[in-house]
Amino acid sequence: MALKILIVDPDEAWLANAKKYLVEQMYEVSIVNNGRDAQLALYNDKYFAVILNYDVQNHSCTQVLKFIKTNYTNQRVIVIVNNKELVDNGVVTEEKLQKLGVAEMAVKPFEIPHLKELLEGHQSLGDLMASVTKKDGATDEIEVTVTDENFSRIKIDEFFSSQAVLFDIYIKLKENKYLKILHAGDSFSKERIDKYKNEKKLDSLYFHNNDRRKFIQYNNFLAKRLIDNKAVPAYNKVNQLKNVSEKFIEEAYTIGMKPQVIEQGKEVCENIYLLIESQPDLFSVLRSFQNFDPTAYAHSFLVTLYSTAIIKQFEWQSKATIETTAMACMFHDVGKMLLPKELAGLKVKDMTPEQFEAYKQHPILGAQVVEGNRAINNSIKQIIMQHHEAYDGTGFPYERKGNKILTLANIVCLVDDFVHIMMEDKLQPTEALRKILTNKVGVKRYNSILIEKFINVFVDPEKIHKEVALPSNSRLVNQKKVS
Questions:
Q1: The domain at 4-122 falls in which architecture?
Q2: Cα separation of 425 and 305, whole Å?
Q3: pTM for this structure?
């Protein structure tokens, strides 16, 4: 069933072009050129989304928004601003529009296909699946020339699809050259995928970055299904979460901390909690799981996985605590995006003293990136800010010490160091932890009870006796609730 869209814009030519394009994209589109007719259209019909120009007359944009907020509380509204100076001067801001119920703001100039991206950003998985035009079989393959930076890669063995493919699937022929092997709406053809895997010896598939959100939505749904299925091995569940988490982090780093992106993050974090909470043999996977992909996204996923596993060892652990820490872990290094470009990919040991001083600011910059985002609470911000603070006071940026550091932040500090060792030295998890334990100076960076709990992560829970008192060099402040 086609989703209904109402476009309200005073420019008749732009209206006609926008309608033509969106109808071709399988939307049902109504158009009006003034605010009064917009209100009348809303009274007479229901719409998935309203695209409203800020300059609309005969009932202004603000009047229409107040009408919608009063009468249609859940209506999605995207506001288009023609004059960028209004945004630059603070006359129109996302925050002001959000108070009027606006989901998103788009500033011209932009190409009309951008409307499709905006709309898809607010669609549920059900909306996406319902709006795909299903075809029998698979469409002919098409060779395309597109720059590599426009594509996301997924291992061919880790690609899963609904019965009707939700987005175009490609294989890479050579640099900037791809072959579209499945079109959106095609019946999923495992035979065609296997042909390239077995006959052509290809190990990867590709999809356009614009479809990354669809990938995340479907694979998040699939991850929950796998986690709920007790017959599925724990490794498969972790691998599925790895794929969806890495693509989510990539999406957030690429398009920013938009509300709909954060909502997807919450779903990912909930799946991580479900896995940590319900999988009794997870320890066996955590003991041997290897992922030497050097990207920031792979690093962030591993920090998330092992940090939440440590929290699970504490009696004060809760759903809120695990999900809060998971979100903080995914964004713990987001401040690196604001560092000088010459620091990108540079290891700390290779930095000059001046470069290291600049690098030490990334936790503060990360907290600034998430500042003001209503979906990011203060606990997440504080973990990001403190994730390099060490228990012995040798950390940064503020050289906090002991109980002045959040327990959750010191957990992330420990796991962040652990993952760097595991990935850079290509060690199995237990070997990386052993390297931390045998460094008598470095181990002082962490509250010792956290080390004890980390060891427990790799041990069969049935062999851990609850009555055993674990030693600690400090008082661990219980965090029964993280707001």
A1: 3-Layer(aba) Sandwich (3.40)
A2: 19
A3: 0.83
Distance, in Å, from the CA atom of 194 to the CA atom of 207, rounded to the nearest integer, reads: 17
Residues of the chain with CATH 1.10.3210.10: 229-463
Tokens 């605590």 belong to which residue? 321
* Residue 160 confidence (pLDDT) above 60: yes
59's torsion region: left (phi>0), alpha (psi -120 to 50) or beta?
A: left
Domain 229-463, what architecture?
Answer: Orthogonal Bundle (1.10)
The residues pairing with 155 across neighbouring beta strands, listed in sequence order, are 204
**Rounded CA gap, 8 and 46, in Å?**
15
Strand partners, 6: 30, 50
Of 67, 92, 97, residue with least CA distance to 82:
92
At 475, the pLDDT band (50, 70, 90 cuts) reads very low
Who contacts 230 (Cβ-Cβ below 8 Å, separation ≥6)?
Answer: none
- Residue 313 DSSP symbol: T
Q: Which tokens sit at 393?
A: 């006071």
Rounded Cα distance, 39 and 58, in Å: 11
Cα separation of 247 and 260, whole Å? Answer: 15
